[in-house]
Amino acid sequence: MAAANNPSINRAQIAQLVRESLRRHVQNGTSPQASQGPNPLVVNISARHCHLSQESVETLFGKGHQLTPKKWLYQEGQYAAEESVTLIGPRSRVISNLRILGPCRDFDQVELAATDAISLGFKVPVRNSGDIAGTPGCMLMGPAGFLEMNEGVIRAAPHVHMAPEDAAFYGVENKSFMKLRVGGDVGVTFDRIFVRVDPSFKLEVHIDTDEGNACGFSQDVPCELIK
Amino acid sequence: MAAANNPSINRAQIAQLVRESLRRHVQNGTSPQASQGPNPLVVNISARHCHLSQESVETLFGKGHQLTPKKWLYQEGQYAAEESVTLIGPRSRVISNLRILGPCRDFDQVELAATDAISLGFKVPVRNSGDIAGTPGCMLMGPAGFLEMNEGVIRAAPHVHMAPEDAAFYGVENKSFMKLRVGGDVGVTFDRIFVRVDPSFKLEVHIDTDEGNACGFSQDVPCELIK
Predict the structure, then answer these.
(1) ipTM score of the complex?
(2) Residues facing residue B42 across a β-bridge
(3) Which of A129, A149, A204, B37 is most buried, judged by most C-beta within 10 A?
(4) Domain residue limits, chain B
(5) Which chain B residues contact residue A214 at CB under 8 A?
(6) CA-CA distances (angstroms) from residue A165 to A76, A172, A173, B21, B26?
(7) Chain B contact for A74, CB < 8 A?
(8) Nearest CA to B158 among B134, B142, B182, B137?
(9) Domain B31-44+158-226, what architecture?
């Protein structure tokens, strides 16, 4: 599941505000994007998870079943559900406790990191959320039944959610690409952060667990979003 | 173990030569470092492994035991040994078949990716090979006994081996940093590739499995070394 944040006590946001404040005082303004944007930059790691349609939830959990929010995420209205499923891969290898993110969507999609895909024994393409045509499928198992997904297993491309005011500040458009520079001991720049602009979005970059591990990400590591 | 290459049939080197040749014909020379250097750029992924002293090998495998080369690596004289050990972490969690790389060194060192360290349940610092003071230890188990390492478990910093002629070409010095730009669907630049210059070294970047998975590395993905 995505690193979750209670909207009222947002540790990531506070950490970023402190970082930016320190940076303004300590450095000589080399990070204008990070320090002067209209909104603080939040970076979160999305662990493997799935999105399901209401119909698929009912197949897995029973007629009329509604997802129960367990932890609210940083994006308004999004949550990690109490419910999780078992994913069965093409070689009958299994991932237990695959978290469902709510609310329901109009399609089924499983988002894995490359390490997860390797452990299951299949190749998963890098795709933007929703772009699932021609991707591999899998089987999901819930307490009330099985769901056969013919497609929808992806490695989500790293991406940034932002509102139009953020896009205007960074000078980027919806569906363009930006870079995320992650400092620290390792030092990694993600060169193709897919930009998703919507008035409902809060400024947040999502990278997966492999990407987070590779760059040694923690909320203490400085991050900078660059056009 | 590091991705291994038989010196006489070097798939990585051939792939790189083909890539460079194609690039010269297809593109308009935007990658001078990659296409005009004195030696082809080889990038290999090092999976978790250990280096041991001869004394430690004898503790684990018996008095007088010598490592047996199983697969020669790209760097002259380096090999993955037939021998492997079991690593026991601080919470009694285990990694089996931890490959030993030879020849023996004068210290013991275990190199893990962040994902390995997380699965074992401890934190491992990013260090250059040999810089092990103050790092965590672990227990190794072999057929003839146990070896208690008080320190030496690291996440190896991504690094590049090169000869003085490569360093002159790139304009870098021993112990400086370079960048490795990895293309493909994900697009990741490693901003702190530690430079190790020695007349015996062949030009080769080593990244670990997490870094390789994060950038979607394969021998078909274009890589560029940048000062």
Answers:
(1) 0.80
(2) B204
(3) A204
(4) 31-44+158-226, 47-156
(5) 114, 188, 210-211, 213-215
(6) 17, 10, 11, 45, 40
(7) no
(8) B182
(9) Beta Barrel (2.40)
